[in-house]
Description:
The protein is of the alpha+beta class. The protein has a domain at 71-261 and 290-298: DD-peptidase/beta-lactamase superfamily (Beta-lactamase), CATH 3.40.710.10. It is 34% helix and 16% strand. The protein has helices spanning 61-74, 106-116, 127-138, 142-151, 154-165, 183-194, 202-213, 277-298; strands at residues 14-15, 59-60, 80-86, 92-95, 100-101, 180-181, 234-243, 249-259, 264-271. It has a 5-stranded antiparallel β-sheet, with helices on both faces. Strands 1-2 form a two-stranded antiparallel ribbon. A two-stranded antiparallel ribbon has the order 5-6. Helix 3 packs across helix 4 (142-151). The longest helix has 22 residues, at 277-298. The two termini are 42 Å apart.
Amino acid sequence: MAEGRGRPLPRRWVVSAVTMSLAGVATAAFGATHGRSGDGAGPSRSSSPAQPIPTTPAVDRIGQARTRIEAYLERYGGRVAVAALDRQGTAAVTVGGRRFETASIVKVNILAALLLRQRPPGKALGGDTRRLAEAMIVSSDNDAAVALWQRIDGSRGLTAANRALGLRETKPNSHWGVTTTTAADQLRLLTALTSPTGPLTPQDRAFVMDLMQKVIPEQRWGVTAAREPGNRSVYVKNGWDTVDVDGGRWLVNSIGRIVEARHDWLIAVLSDHHVSQKEGIRVVEKVATYVVKEMRAATAGESPSQG
C-alpha cells in the first residue's frame, strides 16, 4: 500500500599522507665573510644552492572514494542520489543533485518546524501534540502528519522553518508528501538536527533523535543497513510511495544517522523509478552500505575529532 504522499491524504581525507623524503638533501654551504669592496669576500664558489625537499603528492582518499561512488551510482541513470557526512571527522560526499519527492521523510522536517515554533524555545510539546509527533515519526502515521502540517501553517511554515534550518533546495508543496528536496538538503537537515550550533535546543534535538531511534521494526530499513553488526545506535526515517507522473513506479527515500566508535554518520539516500517498493528498498540499502563502506575505508587511521 502506498505510504503517505500527503495527497489529500495521499562530504580530504586528504589523508594528508604527505611523506617527507629527506634522503639526498644537500646542505647549503655559503661563505659568511664580508670585507671591503674588492677583497674577494662573498659566497664560496664551491657552495651549492639549497635543494627543495622532495615530497610525495598528497593522497585525496575521499576524492578517490567519491569517484568510485559516482561510478557505482551511474548504473541507476540519475535516479539515485546520496549524501553522507561523518560528524566525527572531515569526511563528506554528495553525489547527485536531482530533486526528488520526499514522501514521508518530510515528516522529520515537519517535526523540526513544529519544534522551532515553540515559545520559549525548547518548551516541551503538549500531550496531544507530542502524541501526534510520536505517531508521525515512529509509525509514519499520515493523519498525525496532516494535523501537524496544519499546526505549522503548512507550506508557509515549512518554508520559514527551512530558512532557520539552513535548507536551500527543498520546495514545500501544499500536499506535504510531494514536497521536493535533494540529498544535499536532507544532509543539511540532519546536520541541523544534530549540531550544537544548530537552531534547535538540546532537548529538541534529543527528542527528534529519540523518535527516529524508535521507528517500528518494519520501517527500520534503508540507511540502517550500513550499520556495523550489533550496532543499535541507529536513527532513521523512510519515505515510500508510487509516483503518478512516473507511471506508478515507486520512490523510496531514507535519511538517518549511524553512531559508531570512530564515526557519527549522517546519511541521505533518495531514489525513484523502481518497479516495486521492495526493489527500491534493496537499491537504497545497497547504496547506503556501499557509500559508508567507502567512507570508512577512506578515513581508516584518522583520529576522530572530539565533540
